[in-house]
Design a protein that fits this description.
single chain, mainly beta, 2 domains, two-stranded antiparallel ribbon, 14% strand
């Protein structure tokens, strides 16, 4: 179990870690990034790997947008909001799409 603080590394010898969350120390709603660097027995460090975890709101719906990370110039692509959800019994009934910058 570990209390994560933004920008502060937590080192373990185990390949898994529990992210400890309490009412007093919640992880804020939204997309949160976690990074892993591994070190071998010679002291060599890997390049970092990063994942995003979406912390869902308990009242409002949560938008989950999937899209390709790269597309060729002049080619169409799909934006996918099917992972979005609401707290039951609510349901998502509208998607509002905006291109930013």
């Amino acid at each position: 179990m570990a209390d994560f603080i933004i920008g502060t590394s937590v080192e373990t010898v185990e390949p898994t870690i529990d992210v400890t969350v309490t009412n007093e120390k919640p992880i804020p709603v939204g997309r949160r990034k976690f990074q892993l660097v591994v070190v071998d027995d010679a002291g060599n460090k890997s390049l970092p790997d990063v994942v995003e975890v979406v912390v869902k709101d308990t009242q409002n719906p949560t938008a989950i947008l999937k899209a390709p990370s790269q597309v060729e110039f002049g080619k169409s692509f799909l934006l996918d909001g099917r992972g979005s959800s609401d707290v039951p019994p609510g349901k998502v009934v509208k998607y509002i799409w905006t291109m930013l910058g």
